[in-house]
Amino acid sequence: MYPCEWDLDYSATDCALPPDAGEGDRARRAALEDMAVGFLWAWTGKNLGLCTETVTPVPEPCSCYRDSTFWGRGPRNGQYRVTARPRLTSGAWLPSPCGRHLAVNEVALPGPVHDVVDVTINGQSTPVSIRVDNRRYLVRTDGQAWPTDGSLTVTYRRGVPVPAGGRVAAAVFVCEMEKALNKDRDCALPERIQSITRQGVTVGVAIDTFEDVERGRTGIWLIDSWVASITQPPAPSLVHSPDTGRKGGAEHRVVTWQPTSP
Known about the structure:
The chain is built from five helices and 13 strands. It is of the alpha+beta class. The protein folds into two domains: 23-46 and 163-208 and 216-231, no CATH class; 49-161, no CATH class. Helix 1 (23-43) packs across helix 3 and helix 3 crosses helix 5 (221-231).
C-alpha cells in the first residue's frame, strides 16, 4: 500500500531541482521523494492522500458499503481498505460494486468522498446536478432518479487531502536525506551511529534502536511537530442531544461538496 496523492512543496527550502537537472538527478530525487512520503504516510496512520475510486452502486448492502469510513479515516488504512471486486453484468465487467442505493435520488458511497470526478450511465459520461452530503451520500438534485439496473458508475476521489504542512514537511525531509547521502555537514538529521577510535582503529557503534524513527521522530522540529499535530490532536468536545439519538433519530446532514459554478 502507498498514498495515491502526496505533492511536495519546495517553496520553503533551497533544494528544489533546477529546470535543467539531468535524468540521473531527477531519478534520485524521485526515489528520495517516494521514501520521504512513505515515511510520513506511515507515521501519520496511513490516512492522508486522495485515491480515485470507481464504484457501481447496488440495491443491497455489500461488504465495502459496511466498511465505509465516511467521516473517519482514509481509504488505505488497514481494515478500511476498499478491495476491488469487479462483477459481470449484462455481458460486461463493471467496477467494484461498493455503494448502495438509499433512495431514488441518493446513493451511499464508501467515504470519505472528497469530490466527484465523473458520473456515467450506460457507459456514457452524463452531466447531472449533484451534491455530496456528510462526505458519503451522493444526491441527485435535478429531480430525476438514479438508475438501479447496474448502469450507474461513479468515479470520485476518496480520502483526506494532505495538508499544506505535510507537503512542506515532505520536501524538507527530502532535502535533509539528500544532504545525508552527500555527507553534507549541514544535514539536520541526527547521526544514528557514533564513531569510537581505540589504538588507531575506528569503529561505528549504533547509539539507539531506532524507536524514535518508528514513532515518527526524525530529530527535525518542523517535521516532527507536523507529524505530532496529525497523530496527537487535542480531543474535541462532544455534545449529545437526546433529540437526535442514533436509534430512530434523523441523521444530521451537511453538504460537504458540490460542483462549482462555471
